[in-house]
Amino acid sequence: MKEKFRALPLRSGVGIIVLNKENKVFVAKRIDNPKNFWQMPQGGVDEGEDFLTAAYRELEEETSIKKVEVIKEIDGTITYELPDHLLGIIWKGKYKGQKQKWFVMRFLGNDEEINIKTNKPEFLEWKWIDLDKLTEVVVDFKLHVYKELKEKIKKIIN
């Protein structure tokens, strides 16, 4: 049964690494996975939308954050595949994972502007964490993505 899902395409997506002025990373806990897993804002690219436009849209839809500046577009893309127990469930069963373009952005606003209680909320709570903690809080099937991003972010901010 799961084999048919492995033939599915990857969804085109974006991810946003939001850093505050202390270079702490924005993470949030998903409503649909309320265990102690946290993630950075991310989502799909709509038809006809470029990656940066999608990144700004997803960031605002998920967090209400508007006041950011792009520090760097991460070269290339990073891919992850869903574990078997989520195949056919997430994204209405249309995709087996995501191929993501990531952006590092500096948050220029105040924490009071961050609001995860949006029209279609995805998160229960949010926080700023040290970059070194990033790989300790992520769901296992995205761990390789966050490890790679952590190394790239270190090079950018140092």
Written overview of the protein:
It is a single chain. The chain has 4 helices and 8 strands; from the N terminus they run H-E-E-E-E-H-E-E-E-E-H-H. The protein is α+β, with helices and mostly antiparallel strands. The protein has a single domain, classed as Alpha-Beta Complex (Nucleoside Triphosphate Pyrophosphohydrolase). The strands form 2 sheets. Strands 1, 4, 5, 6 and 7 form a 5-stranded mixed beta sheet that branches. The model has no long low-confidence stretch (mean pLDDT 94).
Largest sheet: 5 strands, mixed
Here the CATH topology equals Nucleoside Triphosphate Pyrophosphohydrolase
**How many domains, as an integer?**
1
- Tell me the overall shape: globular
The CATH homologous superfamily: Nucleoside Triphosphate Pyrophosphohydrolase
> What's the total number of strands?
8
